[in-house]
Amino acid sequence: MIAAHSLKDKTVALFGLGGSGIATAQAIMAGGARVLAWDDNPASVERANAAGIPTGDLRQADWKDFSSFVLSPGVPLTHPRPHWTVDIARAAGVEIIGDIEMFVRERTRSAPDSPFIAITGTNGKSTTTALIAHIVKSSDRDVQLGGNIGTAVMTLDPPARDKYYVVECSSYQIDLAPSINPTAGILLNLTPDHLDRHGTMQHYADIKERLVAGSDTAIVGVDDSYCAGIADRLERAGKTIIRISKRQTLADGLFANGPKLMRSGGGTVEELVSLEGIGSLRGEHNAQNALAAIAACLAVGLGVEEIRDGLKSFPGLAHRMEQVARRGKVLFVNDSKATNADAAAPALSSFERIYWIAGGLPKEGGIASLSGFFPRIAKAYLIGEAAPQFAATLGEAAPYEISGTIAAAVQHAARDAAEDGVAEPVVLLSPACASFDQFQNFEKRGEAFREAVMAVGTGSD
Fold it and tell me: Is 127 part of any known ligand binding site?
């Protein structure tokens, strides 16, 4: 645990008592501060009480006693309207921060030279974060992985010069971290997302920009207009910028040339690494993730050979283009995280001969935007509520059956793929739908896919 010594002897209000909220409250107490915590959910308050955290309705508190207010990133700060606690804190003139800000202050106080890589963007954050952590760990360095990827940042080991912090940051977390100052900050891309919480696309982009603006080295994907503008603006302000692109040839930066990842600058171009044969990093989107990881690892002192070795051994992230198994010549890939058509497109673009398992609770627009990939589909196996709608969209563009369940879809797809004459047919779960018609979440859906694959014959994994 990282004790919040920067708050020592102060009194702190905290709202939001999920897992990270309880961990944050414990970090505040461990640092010698007093905390008063609350949540709108009585069950969360009970859990906090059981953990020894003082609780009390913040409506009844004297806010003159509080030096800081720590807010859970899941609670609205600005849109669609500020949470009631935010209104009270602002009226009392109390600063509003989150756990990432607490981490930043502790690092600055005790080990400002400890390497700190922070990752944000609309898409690819978790894969890039996991990839960087894997590369650092495989180079025999002490890596501390946390943030939005699922481990509360204040539960990591205390900052030290020999520890490498790799932290995924959502826009909500950045909005509560005014002092964020990574050694290397990554902004992968920007597309409309979470606008219910940020109001406008420009406000969303402005929040994301803060992470790279505060970094020693700003690594920015420049394949969308918002990020390209941010890179130009930071460069004019004198920041150290590394541009990355999965589509453009850059005169100065890192870019993809097919599976080859290149570095250019000073009139020279060199190949850093090839992703050829690295199944966990297939596709244009993973080229961008790998470029960002390479740039960040170089920025914190890793060597090119260490990075190459780490890339080659990366196993991938669960439910995101995860290679589950091979059965004979058939590759089974779990992309359950693809909960809409845009998210399914990268997987469909990564394989030539696909036995596609799709469906679930349909999203607006369905799969019409994926029609350019229909020629790659050997057959589709449709599940869940979306099956009739997806069947109508596929029409005569690709063969399909309505399988109903993942178990049936895997069984039929495995049988058909095994009879295919191509060298490596792929059974791909990339549903382009939410999971809630049949599963609690996309993780449970992915686990059901894995279980069904493991029940299919035997072969080499």
Answer: yes
